[in-house]
Amino acid sequence: HSHSVMITRKNRLGVMHLLLLLGVVLACQGCPEKCTCSSQTVKCQNQDLNAIPHSLPTNTKALFVTGNKISRISAESFPTRLLLLTDLYLSGNKMESVEEMVFENLPNLVRLDLSNNKIRIFSAKAFPDDNKLQIFNLSGAFFNHSYMNTALSFLRVGNLLQLTSLDMSNNDLVVLPDGIFTGLSSLTNLSLQNSSIISIQNGTLKVPPLHDLDLRDNSLRELPNATLAEFSLKPDLQLHLAGNPWRCDCFIEDLVVWLKSSDQVADVHNLTCVEPEGLTRHPLLQVEKSQLDCNYAGDMKSVLETSYVFLGLVLALIGVIFLLVLYLNRKGIKRWMYNIRDACRDHMEGYHYRYEINSDARLANLSINSDV
Ligand SMILES: *[C@@H]1O[C@H](CO)[C@@H](O)[C@H](O)[C@H]1NC(C)=O
Ligand SMILES: *[C@@H]1O[C@H](CO)[C@@H](O)[C@H](O)[C@H]1NC(C)=O
Ligand SMILES: *[C@@H]1O[C@H](CO)[C@@H](O)[C@H](O)[C@H]1NC(C)=O
Ligand SMILES: *[C@@H]1O[C@H](CO)[C@@H](O)[C@H](O)[C@H]1NC(C)=O
Ligand SMILES: *[C@@H]1O[C@H](CO)[C@@H](O)[C@H](O)[C@H]1NC(C)=O
Ligand SMILES: *[C@@H]1O[C@H](CO)[C@@H](O)[C@H](O)[C@H]1NC(C)=O
Ligand SMILES: *[C@@H]1O[C@H](CO)[C@@H](O)[C@H](O)[C@H]1NC(C)=O
């Protein structure tokens, strides 16, 4: 009898140990250090972390590791498969490199935010081929202009087939690399706001489903005919173009004509000329064709004015030099004057003498006589 009691006691102890162990395991599977977890959202924000916390709850749907000091993410950043994770926020870190296979264990990732980082390297193999990424934020994500072209080559791989929304604002792009969006066959929303873009070349925005294109606050002075024609081929496309330094000369004529007839520019009333001076802050919609000229009449006038002033100055200088020469040569001139005077006097005296001779009757007779 006592023997059997001993056994049950032993069993109870074992069960208790088991429960304890389970508790410890659950705690490990629970919330990582420096994170807060609620329902299926894990937040590890502004904690000076330099890596993604490991042992995340396997049922995590949304993970926020923002405002930390993570400089690289690689396949080791997500060692366990997180099948339910759809939203990943990594903005405001000091991310420099996004390495290959990093999102391999997040097969259902839909939303990715890498904004405000310092990315120099972005592996072309970062995303698995069957990824489900739809919304991607790369606003202010890159280190500087020098790294844009290579860092963006992952977009050309052509495996972001479900991407609908891409935010590339606040990057120093300047020009759009050739065919950069061509592989994004589902892209509808594209923001290129404040990206120092100076021109849109023919074909760079050749994305069939594009629906919303934000080009505000760039450095566009005009849009060429070919680009306008491309926009017109997508009647569903809405554009935002305000905050660009439009130059209202003859080259913008096609754009003005197009703006007046198109309803594709959502902020068309907010487009204003920056140049020339006479049209500053003038709405593009109110500019008349006759005002758009490249003769630069105003400029010509000022050029003429300055050349007149210059001519005057040159003449004044020549005058001054002339006077100076006269002054420096004053002695010589005096001598010269005296010489002339003397010569005149001699001449005059000679004349006078001859006159006197001629006028003296006696001498006249004498001369007549002598002639004889
Ligand atoms: C992208 O991130 C920036 C900064 O974190 C934010 O201001 C912006 O609204 C985000 N873009 C989208 C489309 O959510
Ligand atoms: C980008 O940063 C690198 C390294 O700091 C520098 O050498 C390069 O000049 C920068 N490029 C631009 C366009 O600022
Ligand atoms: C525009 O983008 C630059 C980076 O290219 C950034 O430094 C600046 O803060 C952005 N401006 C605004 C108003 O967001
Ligand atoms: C996409 O653009 C439409 C307007 O065309 C806007 O209503 C929608 O919120 C945008 N979506 C995203 C994710 O930015
Ligand atoms: C631009 O296109 C319009 C209409 O398609 C045409 O009338 C105009 O002549 C073109 N301008 C140039 C410079 O090709
Ligand atoms: C623009 O590119 C398309 C092909 O991408 C070409 O057919 C068309 O002629 C080009 N237009 C101009 C004006 O270069
Ligand atoms: C035009 O600019 C005004 C003032 O800057 C702003 O309030 C308005 O929302 C803008 N309109 C559009 C369509 O962006």
From TrEMBL:
Output the GO biological process annotations, alphabetical, semicolon-separated: negative regulation of canonical Wnt signaling pathway
What sections of the sequence does the record tag as coiled-coil? none
Q: Does the keyword Transmembrane apply?
A: yes
- Name of protein: Trophoblast glycoprotein
Q: Where are the transmembrane segments?
A: 308-328
Q: InterPro entries given for it?
A: Cys-rich_flank_reg_C, Leu-rich_rpt, Leu-rich_rpt_typical-subtyp, LRR_dom_sf, LRRNT, Wnt_signaling_inhibitor
> PANTHER family this protein is in?
LP06937P, TROPHOBLAST GLYCOPROTEIN B
**What span is annotated as the signal peptide, if there is one?**
1-27
**One GO CC annotation, please?**
plasma membrane
Occurrences of domain LRRNT (ranges): 30-62
Give UniProt keywords alphabetically.
Leucine-rich repeat, Membrane, Repeat, Signal, Transmembrane, Transmembrane helix
- The residues covered by the LRRCT domain are 244-295
Q: Name one Pfam family in it.
A: LRR_8
Q: What organism does this protein naturally occur in? A: Myripristis murdjan (pinecone soldierfish)
